[in-house]
DNA sequence: AACCAGCCCAACCGCATGTAA
DNA sequence: CTTACATGCGGTTGGGCTGGT
């Protein structure tokens, strides 16, 4: 395997490589990414193959600019989840975590005047949301498997969020939210994230 | 036309997490 | 329980494009 890693090519993918990868996935499905270079002779790491498929070759991936609805959704979900790009992307059909992340970093953070220095903290806090979604009440006791302290930014807000298991929220703009959500029923309205965040945690 | 600065976004890197042996 | 490996995620990088001078 290391031999494949060592000789793996980097940089932009060409049409031929895309075609090889697409054919492989059509035949074998996703997963076992590290097998791809061995089976197909593609000079790319498994990681690179996965990323290329997820971000570009997946048939339902949407290209082009974000619509106003999508933009609003990103803003709202980011205010709730922080930099959990994969979670945010999972709720915007056809958009990948990389697209959402790029869109946020290049357009929205500028537009909304987000201080990049504060980015990291929001991200750390949001790490707990999946556990809460999974119904894990005593999230404070959940530490990383390697014994590192990963929840230094744990907030009471999140504890409260955990206690709202299966609650349904409504903000000042009539937007509804459910927890733990399989569907965020986020009716779009222009940039009401601050109010949303305020009313969400005030309840 | 040539140069440059800034922007965009695809891809890479490092780390965390999951899981099979 | 431990270890090794695979996968997923978020942050960052850098090549190409575009607009300004």
Automatic annotation (TrEMBL):
GO molecular function: DNA binding
Domain HTH myb-type, first and last residues per copy: 9-57, 58-112
InterPro entries referenced in this protein's UniProt entry, alphabetically: Homeodomain-like_sf, Myb_dom, Myb_TF_plants, SANT/Myb
Main localization of the protein described in the UniProt heading: nucleus
Entry keyword annotation includes DNA-binding: yes
UniProt domain Myb-like: residue ranges: 5-57, 58-108
Keyword Lipid biosynthesis: no
GO biological process: cell differentiation; plant epidermis development; system development
UniProt-annotated location(s): Nucleus
Keywords carried by this UniProt record: DNA-binding, Nucleus, Repeat, Transcription, Transcription regulation
Gene Ontology CC annotations of this record: nucleus
Top-level taxon in the UniProt lineage: Eukaryota
PANTHER family recorded: TRANSCRIPTION FACTOR MYB8-RELATED-RELATED (PTHR47999), TRANSCRIPTION FACTOR WER-LIKE (PTHR47999:SF59)
Protein name according to UniProt: Myb proto-oncogene protein
Organism: Vigna unguiculata
């Amino acid at each position: 395997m290391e031999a494949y890693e060592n000789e793996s090519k980097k940089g932009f993918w060409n049409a031929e490589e895309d075609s090889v990868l697409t054919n492989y996935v059509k035949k074998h499905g996703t997963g076992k990414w590290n097998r791809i270079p061995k089976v197909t002779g593609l000079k790319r790491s498994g990681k690179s193959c996965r990323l290329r498929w997820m971000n570009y070759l997946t048939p339902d991936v949407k290209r082009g600019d974000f619509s106003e609805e999508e933009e609003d959704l990103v803003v709202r979900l980011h205010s709730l989840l922080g930099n959990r790009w994969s979670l945010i992307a999972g709720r915007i059909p056809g958009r990948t975590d990389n697209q959402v992340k790029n869109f946020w970093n290049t357009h929205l953070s500028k537009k909304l005047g987000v201080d990049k220095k504060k980015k990291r903290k929001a991200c750390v806090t949001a790490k707990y949301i999946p556990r809460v979604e999974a119904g894990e009440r005593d999230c404070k006791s959940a530490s990383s498997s390697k014994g590192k302290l990963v929840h230094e930014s744990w907030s009471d807000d999140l504890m409260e969020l955990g206690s709202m298991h299966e609650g349904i929220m409504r903000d000042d703009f009539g937007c509804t939210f459910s927890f733990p959500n399989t569907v965020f029923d986020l009716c779009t309205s222009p940039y009401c994230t601050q109010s949303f965040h305020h009313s969400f945690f005030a309840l």
